[in-house]
Design brief:
Blueprint: H1 2-25, H2 33-46, E1 50-64, E2 67-81, H3 83-91, H4 93-115, H5 120-135, E3 143-153
Antiparallel strand pairs: 1-2, 2-3
Helix pairs in contact: 4-5
Amino acid sequence: MKKLFIIFALVLLVAGATIGAMKWFGLGPFEQPEMAADMEKAKEIEAPQALFVDVEPLLINVVQAGAIATTIQMEVKLESTGNENIIKIKRMLPTYKDAFLKDLHAFVPRMLSELGRLDLPTLKARLQLVADRVAGEKGVVNGVLIQSVLDTPQQ
C-alpha cells in the first residue's frame, strides 16, 4: 500500500511538471492563437506591394553598313515599392528613358552581332544596371519588366 501511494504521488508530480512546462512555453492546449494571428498580420504588413511605372515605348534603330537594318520597339515598366520611390521615378522618367535609349543604342547592335538574337534576361539585367545608375542608389527601382519586344526589319 505504501508503494502504491509513492507511485501515485510520483505520477502526479510528473503530470504537474508537464502541465506547468506546457503552460510556461505556451504549448498544446495553452497555445495562444491571438499571437499566431498577430504574427501573420505582421508578415502581411512587412511585404509591401509592388507598384509599376510605365515608360514610353523605347524605339531603337539598329544601323548596319550605313543603313537602318531593323527597328526594335520595347515596352518597359519599372517596378518599385513605396510611394516615395514612385514619386522619385516619375519625376526622373525622362532621365530614365534617355539613359535607356543611350545604353540600348550601343548595346543592342553588339548583342545582335554576337548572338544573332535579343536575349531578354540579359537586356533586363542591363536595364536594371542603368536604372540603378540613374537613381544613384539601389532599391529605388526593384526590377525592370520588359512587357513586349517588336522587331521590325527594314527592307
